[in-house]
């Protein structure tokens, strides 16, 4: 019997294939096509509309970096907002912080959450059942435009700018995020792989630069997102948060007992050192 392969269709001139060792689910929700399968290198792989979202083996890199960098830079974040993130991996990392009083997750597609609870417990753990978790099924843009709540950290854990995720890369959305931040709060965003999605990063950063006193990106290499390191947008009006001494980050990390496998205080600092070809895109 010949093996079946999943082919990612995100980039026009680059195709990645992952072998489907076992198909666990395939179907369509109201918003998107979902597929979950097992692969020998990545474990369980979730893809939406033909694009890999998260995998069991490398999710810790993405989720730790996009959660711990802003939370440890802030130092006392109580109210967290996650936009997207239906797999629950970001929620799980955020809830590891003792300072967090409430984590609100706004996901447009409830089926991704149901699906994760059933098949991706290795990624979300018991995060959906945590008493500090507040789940809202809604469009992220509409939510941030209408909420009265203010958040210390907003994490945009979105799909790529295709389908329902497209609105999460717009000036309208980023402006509403800024309005929903508390004083000195931080916005971080999933901003793709700059080597193959440079326009996406350039576009987001040109908007964030106009909105925040300090706007840049930081990077991490996540093997499942092919084409090089990926970029995370960063926007805050408190420029000091990006230049904290290593000893401060180390002390905060030690106090949290995060048990991280990728994040360290040194990796945090280094993630803001941008290669020239990425620095050019965020100027
Ligand atoms: N880590 C992933 C990545 O880098 O591709 C993202 C993971 S998470 C599964 C992305 C989620 O964003 C999806 O579940 C999708 O339904 C949700 N989403 C897309 N557009 C949205 C919107 N406008 N409002 C809220 N959630 C949205």
Secondary-structure topology with pairs:
Elements: E1 4-8, E2 16-20, E3 22-28, E4 33-39, E5 43-48, E6 51-55, H1 59-74, E7 79-84, H2 89-94, E8 102-107, H3 110-119, H4 121-124, E9 133-137, H5 140-146, E10 151-157, H6 171-179, E11 181-190, H7 198-211, E12 214-220, E13 230-236, H8 246-256, H9 265-270, H10 276-282
Parallel strand pairs: 7-8, 7-10, 8-9, 10-11
Antiparallel strand pairs: 1-2, 3-4, 4-5, 5-6, 11-13, 12-13
Helix pairs in contact: 5-6, 6-7
The structure holds S-adenosylmethionine.
Question: What would your notes on this structure say?
Answer:
The protein has 283 residues and is of the alpha/beta class. The protein folds into 2 domains: 5-55, Spermidine synthase, tetramerisation domain (Spermidine Synthase, Chain: A, domain 2, Roll), CATH 2.30.140; 59-282, 3-Layer(aba) Sandwich (Rossmann fold). Helix content is 32%, strand content 29%. It has helices at 59-74, 89-94, 110-119, 121-124, 140-146, 171-179, 198-211, 246-256, 265-270, 276-282, and strands at 4-8, 16-20, 22-28, 33-39, 43-48, 51-55, 79-84, 102-107, 133-137, 151-157, 181-190, 214-220, 230-236. A hairpin with a 3-residue loop joins strand 4 and strand 5. The longest helix has 16 residues, at 59-74. It is globular and about 55 Å long. The model has no long low-confidence stretch (mean pLDDT 96). Bound molecules: S-adenosylmethionine. S-adenosylmethionine binds at residues 48, 53-54, 62, 83-87, 106-109, 112, 139-141, 157-159, 164-165, 167-168, 190.
